[in-house]
Amino acid sequence: MLPRSLSNLYHLQYIICEWPRSLDKAKGDDFLPNDINNLLNLRYVKLPKNCISWICEIGKLKSLQELYKFILRDVSGYRIGELKNMNDLYKLGINCLENVKDGEEACNAQLCEKRRLKDLTLSWSRSHIDSTNNDLDENVLDNLQPPKCLRNMSIKRYMGARSAIWMNNVNPIFNLEIILLTDCLELETLPPFGQLPFLKFLKLASMPKVKWLESKFNGNDKYHAFPLLEKLYIHRLEALEDWFEAGVAAEDGCLFPCLIQLRLFNCPKLKELPSLPPKLKGLNIANMGWKTLNFCSNSNPIPLVSLEAYHCPNIISLPLADEIARLAALRYLTIKGCPNLISLGIYRQVETTNNFHLMLNDLDINDPSVLLMEPLRSIASLKNLIITYNDEVVSFPNEVEQWFLTVRSSLSELYIYNLKSLQSLPSTFESLSSLQYVVLWDVPMLRELPNLPPSLERLDIRDCHPELKERYGEDGGSDRHKIAHIPDIFIL
């Protein structure tokens, strides 16, 4: 509880009250002085949890610059009209917008008059997701137009079927750099975000009715879709079919010219990109319907550093070998839950002649047979190998055992998790001269270890067969001497 005398410090500009989470039981109406809104010069307040939302008539604090969570209530002193004269705000979060009764009340916030506002979050409550009053949400959002100076905008759990009127005109949102739209379950069409000249980060999540990423395209030869976008995250847009509305196509090389990071999760209907963006460094796809990846057809180097594919049952080929000469930057590769994958591409004659090979830091797989596909079969260097979540592998095929010799001078860490049926490990482990760290977790059928190399510094075994612990345990295990050279051993 803050002292009641605090309200007498009329020239106070900053209140910062740190509060340990273990003691975070403060309730705003008990924690704050009743007349804290007398501090008219207050610029910044940091309080535990949502205490700031318990300030009645917070609109009196006209000098406040940050109001990160204003929880609306249908009670006098806590309505959206409190924001009317708070024109010094640069960061504002408005929660429980379902408590705004109509568009006229929303207009009382006068967001467009806040010429310093840079960061805005507009949220409806989680319970509002079941609402069927779409028109009300649309009217409210129509009347919450922010100022043109806004840089970051987040909208959560908006249940309107259409975008706000001001969002469909590029001019009011011209300067946006970051946009997050999440849990807008009824939204059918996105605003023309592709035309925003300064947009760098776009996240779209849980909008099951949206079919196109960009529905408006001006057709100008100089037009580049998403000209400065660097990060694009799309999660759970189950109806998303294409990047542009039917009948519209981007110019070659004009779709995401600056994109660095692309994450696509749970968009099973989305078509494959015509080609990967020219500056893309990280691609992460999961639960997608794609069959392959399309690399751009020019001869420029591909800057891709990280490629992750999870649970993509339709993927047949990832043409890495075809482009091995241009994939020199690739260091992190994950392929898991892709049961129909039959190829990682085919080496061209020029690649074999010039001896191009992958050099990876991390390789994460669940099917060891992937190791026998080029370019992994002849990989030049690998530091960390992770093999996880496979209930079918009983032992490693002889070819895979021999594959480990390919990375014997580079492999330093090996992780094997959740291989429920695995009964034996490759005998070639003894030859892995750079191996320092081995982790074996949840391999319940494993009873015996192969000879391990003298380079090994740590062995971590958990939830394996009881016989393994008995044989290699420090309390008189019959095979303890076989691992005694390892400085750090943990068996649980």
Search tags:
single chain, mainly beta, 17-stranded parallel β-sheet, 8% helix, 22% strand, globular
Question: How much helicity do the residues have?
Answer: under 10%
Order of helices and strands: EHEEEHEHEEEEEEEEEEHEEHEEEHE
Q: What is the strand tally?
A: 21
Residue-averaged pLDDT, rounded? Answer: 91
Instruction: Specify the structural class.
Output: mainly beta
Runs in which pLDDT lies below 50 for 5 or more consecutive residues are 217-222
Task: Give me the number of helical elements.
Answer: 6
- What does the largest sheet look like? 17 strands, parallel
Based on CA inertia axes, which overall geometry fits? Answer: globular
Distance between the termini: 47 Å
Return Rg in Å. 29 Å
Strand portion: 15-25%
InterPro entries: LRR_dom_sf, LRR_R13L1-DRL21
Organism: Dendrobium nobile (Orchid)
Domain R13L1/DRL21-like LRR repeat region: 80-207
Protein name: R13L1/DRL21-like LRR repeat region domain-containing protein
